[in-house]
Amino acid sequence: MRKVLLAVLAFGLAACGTAGGEEPAEVSGLSVNLSPQQNRVTAAKDDTIAAKVPEKFRTKGELVIGGSAGTAPPLRFYATDDKTVIGVETDIASLVADVLGLKPRLEVASWENLFVGLDSGAYDLGLSNITVTEARKEKYDFATYRLDTLAFEAKKGGTWKVEEPKDVAGKVIAVTSGTNQEKILVDWSAANVSAGLKATDIKYFQNSSDYYLALQSGRIDAYLGPNPTSAYHAATSGQTEVIGNFSGGAAVQGKIAATTKKDSGLVTPVQEALNQLIANGKYAEVLKRWGLSDEAVPTSEINPQGLPKS
């Protein structure tokens, strides 16, 4: 079994044991199973919660869960066979399906096509680091399961830190198009220009390999993305470091949520399944498995306050 050993870092990857029969790490750090044989944490069906699943989903006997796989670990990515989708998002998706008594079917889509699939009904549920926003709440229902924390990642060894908007003035920073981190960066740049500072030169990349190559070659100063992926990459590559952390909601605490088409009837049983998993410790076990215990929520909420409209 292939393993990656992560150092214990100040920005949030806690040392822990392993789940599902994996061997523990031999040194202080996190042992991550990257093989197709995930030995995922599992949960029992709850008949009361399962009965609340609308009939059109129950009759299929499966829960079709969409998500992207172009991000870096530990969110949703490919195992060592380059075809099996693994990560914290797939583990949580599988646990929810267990409680609902449905077989999880994990589908892969680009970020844009994930929402197209939810709109068309091709996907019953989206679990792909999706942040709750007021605009998205007009089309989708949400059941939260993780805090949304962002990170600026730069080459290791520099002195530059990002603590406030003025720190990105004049910098070249990469971001993925259509994400909330893009909106935050655009807003920060506009505020800096209004204050007489230089604009941020924003570059767009869709694949992690592209922005990491740009970072190492010096074409960008930093990448702004989900904290889990940046923390994981910094720990495993030894070439980069996190130079600033922020809520994905800027002034509002951003929250990551399981996403369903609005009024599909699925969000309530999904939320109840998540709360049961939080209560029985299965949820914490999965987060610990992937080094994300710091992003845990105490309870799942349906359609909480989201990031404001622009």
Automatic annotation (TrEMBL):
Q: Show the taxonomic lineage.
A: Bacteria, Bacillati, Actinomycetota, Actinomycetes, Pseudonocardiales
- UniProt xrefs under CDD domains: PBP2_MidA_like (cd01004)
Query: Locate the Solute-binding protein family 3/N-terminal domain: which residues?
Result: 62-294
Query: Mind listing the UniProt keywords for this protein, alphabetically?
Result: Signal
Leader peptide range in chain numbering: 1-21
SUPFAM superfamilies the record matches: Periplasmic binding protein-like II
What this protein is called in its record is Polar amino acid transport system substrate-binding protein
Q: Signal as a keyword?
A: yes
